[in-house]
Structures are given as C-alpha cells and as structure tokens.
C-alpha cells in the first residue's frame, strides 16, 4: 500500500536546463556555415571587403529570426532574444574569425611577387628590390604605391610597426563584424518578439464532429 501511495504522489516537473532552444542551436550551425560562405565568397572569390561588412548585419537578422522560427518560439520574449543572440554569436564568430584569418594569410604569405624578390633564372642572382616574406613585403608594396605618407600619419615607419598596425586593424575589423552580426540577430529576434503570437486555427475535423 505504501508503494502504491507513493506512486500516486505527483513528482515536480524539472525546469528545462537549456538557456536556448534546440532549434536555436541548430540555427547556430546554419549561421556558422553562412558566415563561412560570406567570408570565402567576398574575400577569396570576389574580394570586395566592403560587402562583408554590409552582409554581416543582414546575415545576423536572418539567422536571428530563423533561430526562433526553427524553435517555434514566440514567448517569453527574453527567450526569443536569447535564441536570436546565440545564433547571432555563432554566426558572428565564424564570419569574423575566418575573415581575419584570410586577411592575415595574404599578408604573412606575401612573398613580394612579382614586384620584389625576382631572381635570374640560371645564376639565381637577385634582380631588383627584395623584401622579407610576410608583412615586410606588403609594407614595401604600399610604399611603392605611394601610400607612405598615409602610413606615416598612422604611426607606421617600418615593417615592424606596419605589422603591429595590420594586426590591430584586422582585429578591429573582426570585432566590428561581430557587433554588426549580433546586432542584426537581435534586431531579427526583436521583430519576432514584438509580434503577436498567432492563434492556432480550429481543427476542421473537430468542428465537423461537434
């Protein structure tokens, strides 16, 4: 009898431990792929840096809305925004990290070709100006293009200071992409949170039976 009585006592339902819905986690992976595609498309295939920054908030808004559509989440509003923020952060990190890595790859792999480090085919003698592979070659290119005064105004006077300048500039660019993307995702989530939750249409079969 004691066992039977104990079984009839209702047990408290444990509150969900997740801060984000499963649909938002899935949307985060989708956003990660979106960020990778944007970075590759506009840094390698069609190298237009400005487009990356224009696409970041748009991608964030799309993934922020999609996170809650995937999770079928309308309320509470804080959960809607949390879902959007999570998907936006994952998207932003994928986009920003790959963007910075690609930018730095071009700088640190710069061997000066074809302007510098040319050698004579048979004797191996240097022809013309030389530079050390990496930021030094990129710095030499900038000087040859007449951007020396611009660099001096920014505090760049040699290859070492140019390297520090580039690292600082690219990290700032990555942080801007994160802010733009997450801001866009919160905007997309806010649009859904401010809308009224749709009322489910009555079942036609149940109306007919009634």
Tally the helices. 8
Biggest sheet character: 2 strands, antiparallel
The end-to-end span amounts to 43 Å
pLDDT average, as an integer?
Answer: 85
Please tally the β strands and state the result. 2
- The domain tally reads 1
How does the helix and strand content classify structurally? Answer: mainly alpha
Percent helix range:
55-70%
Rg of Cα set? 27 Å
Uncertain parts: 1-15
- Quaternary form: single chain
Strand order of the largest sheet: 1-2
Overall 3D form: elongated
Instruction: Write down the secondary-structure element order.
Output: HHHHEEHHHH
Q: What is the strand content?
A: under 5%
Description:
- This protein has 210 residues and is mainly alpha-helical.
- Helices cover 69% and strands 2% of the residues.
- It contains eight helices and two strands.
- The chain has a two-stranded antiparallel sheet.
- Helix 2 packs antiparallel against helix 3 (49-71).
- The longest helix has 36 residues, at 159-194.
Layout of secondary structure:
Layout: H1 2-8, H2 22-45, H3 49-71, H4 77-108, E1 118-119, E2 126-127, H5 135-144, H6 148-153, H7 159-194, H8 204-209
Antiparallel strand pairs: 1-2
What is this structure, in a nutshell?
This protein is mostly helical and 210 residues long. The N terminus is likely disordered.
């Amino acid at each position: 009898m004691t066992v039977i009585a104990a079984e009839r006592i209702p047990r408290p339902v444990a509150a969900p431990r997740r801060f984000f819905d499963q649909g938002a986690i899935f949307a985060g992976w989708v956003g990660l792929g979106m960020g990778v595609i944007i970075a590759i498309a506009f840094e390698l295939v069609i190298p237009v840096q400005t487009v990356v920054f224009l696409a970041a908030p748009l991608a964030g808004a799309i993934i922020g809305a999609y996170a809650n559509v995937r999770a079928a989440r309308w309320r509470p509003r804080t959960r809607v925004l949390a879902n959007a923020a999570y998907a936006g952060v994952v998207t932003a990190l994928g986009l920003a990290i790959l963007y910075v890595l690609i930018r730095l790859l071009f700088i640190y792999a710069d061997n000066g070709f074809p302007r510098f480090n040319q050698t004579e085919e048979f004797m191996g003698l240097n022809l013309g100006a030389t530079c050390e592979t990496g930021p030094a070659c990129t710095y030499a290119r900038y000087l040859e293009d007449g951007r020396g005064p611009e660099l001096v105004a920014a505090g760049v006077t040699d290859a070492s200071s140019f390297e520090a300048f580039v690292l600082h500039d690219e990290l700032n660019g990555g942080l801007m992409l994160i802010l733009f993307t997450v801001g866009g995702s919160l905007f997309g989530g806010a649009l859904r949170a401010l809308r009224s939750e749709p009322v489910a249409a009555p079942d036609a079969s149940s109306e007919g039976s009634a």
